[in-house]
Specification:
By secondary structure, this protein is an alpha/beta fold. It has 14 helices and twelve strands. The strands form two sheets. A seven-stranded mixed β-sheet has the order 7-6-8-9-10-11-12, with helices on both faces. Strands 2-1-3-4-5 form a five-stranded parallel β-sheet, sandwiched between helices.
Length: 327
């Protein structure tokens, strides 16, 4: 066989082989999704996240694959789960809740990360500024530390007889000072006596509750710090054991049996994360160029079973205002 005939034959075979087809059908990009809590089948924020992606042309299973990892409120699992997603070579990581965000940040400095954070991402060292994040991270922040006064007001409505209210804070948290000042100002405005309890580790959390009881605290506001998110189950158990009405900075506390929570609503922002952030990154945008935004919608969640166990009668005004009531 002449060399020219051989080359022609080889070229024809290449045209008919799967290689050309593979070039036309590149592998779907993979989006990694990492969360501290549980995946909830009802009112699932994942549904709105997928909707946001679909609005921008990325349909799960057709044009994009999504790998989900949930720690089920076991913060110690997050580094391993984050590492798994990095090993899967995901095109972008979506992370919700502070501990998950820190785990993702530690796992990669190159893969784009889109976060949903309840604190100031600048103080946490995630971005350089809200308008120009820089680096590989961007997303949404609800700045829930600024909601401390609102939480205290809601707690007072739930437990109107309480005149002395404890405030559990982590002094090491970057945003602890601002949130504590808001707590003190709100307590003065409502005519309440605040008791500040500092906890920098798990043992401090356990020790704080006997001190709260000894100092006459009748209710508790839990600050929105990562330490407390990691120890959500323990904090809920301690407030229950001490029959203390408490309001928390995230709905995963109420899922675990906490009385009530007031925090950023995941559903609307998750749609924005899908359509604005993840889709744009998949199309070639850089996280450094996508400004961090601050959603304005928040949700009140009330656990009726816990209220009943505490002997509290939930006011009708709170039932009407609640975005979700757990029965």
């Amino acid at each position: 066989m002449r060399r020219r005939d051989f080359i022609t034959l080889l070229g024809g075979a290449a045209a008919g082989c799967p290689l050309a087809a593979r070039a036309q059908h590149a592998p779907m990009p993979i989006v990694g999704f990492l969360g501290l809590g549980f995946r909830r089948p009802d009112a699932d924020p994942i549904a709105t996240f997928r909707q946001g992606l679909a609005e921008s042309g990325f349909v799960e299973g057709k044009t994009v694959a999504i790998e989900y990892r949930w720690a089920n409120n076991q913060a110690g699992r997050l580094p391993l789960l984050a590492a798994e997603l990095v090993q899967r070579r995901v095109a972008v990581l979506v992370v919700i809740d502070g501990p998950a965000i820190l785990a993702a940040k530690a796992a990669t400095s190159t893969i784009p990360i889109v976060f949903w954070l309840g604190a100031d991402p600048i103080k946490f060292g995630l971005v350089a500024s809200l308008s120009r994040p820089g680096g590989n991270m961007t997303g949404l922040t609800s700045l829930t530390g600024e909601l401390t006064g609102k939480r205290l007001d809601l707690l007072r409505e739930m437990a109107p007889s309480a005149t002395t209210v404890g405030y559990l804070t982590d002094p090491r948290a970057r945003d602890s000072g601002d949130a504590m000042n808001e707590m003190l100002a709100a307590a003065r405005a409502l005519g309440l006596r605040p008791i500040i309890l500092e906890a920098g580790n798990t043992l401090d959390i356990e020790m704080a509750f006997p001190t709260l009881v000894e100092r006459g605290a009748e209710a508790l506001v839990v600050a929105p710090h990562i330490l407390f998110q990691r120890n959500a189950r323990k904090i809920v158990e301690l407030t229950s054991r001490n029959a203390m009405p408490a309001i928390y900075p995230g709905r995963f506390f109420t899922d675990l049996g906490g009385l009530m929570s007031y925090s950023g609503n995941f559903v609307g922002p998750m749609r924005l994360i899908g359509s604005l952030y993840v889709a744009q990154i998949l199309k070639g945008a850089k996280p450094a160029d996508l400004p961090v935004q601050q959603p304005t919608k928040f949700e009140l969640v009330i656990n009726l079973k816990t209220a009943k166990a505490l002997g509290l009668s939930v006011p009708q005004t709170l039932l009407v205002a609640a975005d979700e009531v757990i029965e």
